Amino acid sequence: MKRCEWAGNTEMMIDYHDKEWGRPLYDDQKLFEFLILESMQAGLSWDTILKKRENFRAAFDNFDPEIIACYNEAKFDELMNNAGIIRNRLKIKAAITAAKLYLEIQTEGSFSDYIWQFVGSCPKINKWKSLKYIPAQTDESVLMSKTLKKRGFNFVGPTICYAFMQATGMVNDHIIDCFCYNEINLQAK
Hints:
Helix content is 56%, strand content 2%. The chain is mainly alpha-helical. It has a single domain (5-188), classed as Hypothetical protein, domain 2 (Endonuclease III, domain 1, Orthogonal Bundle), CATH 1.10.340. Helix 2 (28-41) crosses helix 9 (158-167).
């Protein structure tokens, strides 16, 4: 089977590529989890985040925004001392803030509807022949970034937002000869 080159040859990355990346995701809490993980990834490799994902889930109460929004200084200190996650003070504070903002958005409707608005509520199907053509950001990710930042989110620059869009299937950026490309397109219809 032909895969996107970035999947590499580790079982973890291949499994992530084949079963998760680029598949349209509409579950509010899973979208929140990906947004936090993408924010944590800033300046690091996705491989690093995937290796720590289960640690993040345990440390961040399975990414339950209602619990995270109530984190106090003691919990913050606990996270800062947790060697199983990324111990970046600003990123951890950003995750707590994001949980509060996520809950605020949910008072207006679903987080899924809110976040999917940036691609017109349906996956954008790209037709890349090679990874070298895939952009680091798009007009949609720039708009998402500006909108999220205006609400108070941090670590949501246009490149992070585009990586989030790719991971959650808001865009299909599998290369066209990757076996996932057509599979995902059929599911999106």
